[in-house]
Design a protein that fits this description.
This protein is of the alpha/beta class. The chain has one domain: Formyl transferase, N-terminal domain (Rossmann fold), CATH 3.40.50. About 40% of the residues lie in helices and about 20% in strands. It is built from six helices and seven strands, in the order βαβαβαβαβαββα. A seven-stranded mixed beta sheet has the order 3-2-1-4-5-6-7, sandwiched between helices. The longest helix is centred in the C-terminal third of the chain and has 26 residues. InterPro entries: Formyl_transf_N, Formyl_transf_N_sf, GART.
């Protein structure tokens, strides 16, 4: 089973997925919308092919998603795992990979969707936040929830400390859920 990771940032989740020894799929493609992203160096290190695109080079979202779908199909990809990909999927991508696109988000959705979910939760003063893995749809961090793990906000926590615990939780959860999804198919 071949899978792609879509990421535009640091790539800590990508790193953890790549280092999971019993991963039920092979990550053979990284899709990235930012040529400066650190995750590209990580992909190069692992010998994973990279498709970097600049949305501004395309006339429309439809056009760049058609190009992405072409790359995915050429590579024989059957699953897509988003890890810090900051774009909303459109009908072209969603239609080509129905129920095969999964995202990880650093809050207990439907609370705190969108950008800076950890900062949003911290500022709201909640005592419990967490991590969600979900199928994506046309919304922002909406779509059927697959798994959630709570993370407690401790008294005296700084936002940085909370972020570290949430990321650690993400790194434990994502490879497990990826394996469960692929093995259930
Ligand atoms: C993660 O917190 C993920 O939940 C969110 O984007 C972040 C990506 O982090 N969607 P990294 O690039 O994997 O370190």
């Amino acid at each position: 089973v071949k899978a792609a990771v879509f990421a535009s940032g640091t790539g800590s989740n990508f790193d953890v997925i790549m280092n999971t020894e019993d991963l039920a799929c092979e990550i053979t493609l990284l899709v990235c919308d930012n040529p400066e992203a650190q995750v590209i160096q990580k992909a190069n290190k692992y010998g994973v092919a990279v498709f970097v695109f600049n949305p501004k080079d395309y006339p429309s979202k439809k056009a760049y998603e058609q190009q992405i779908v072409k790359k995915l199909q050429e590579a024989g990809i059957s699953w897509i795992f988003l890890a810090g990909y900051m774009r909303i999927a459109g009908p072209v991508l969603l239609g080509a990979f129905e129920n095969k696109i999964v995202n990880i988000h650093p809050s207990l959705l439907p609370a705190f969707p969108g950008k800076d979910a950890i900062g949003q939760a911290f500022k709201a003063g909640v005592k419990i936040t967490g991590v969600t893995v979900h199928f994506i749809d046309e919304g922002i961090d909406t779509g059927p929830i697959i798994a959630q793990v709570p993370v407690t906000v401790l008294t005296g926590d700084t936002e940085t400390e909370l972020k570290e615990r949430i990321q650690k939780t993400e790194h434990q959860l994502y490879p497990k859920v990826i394996n469960q999804l692929i093995q259930a198919k």
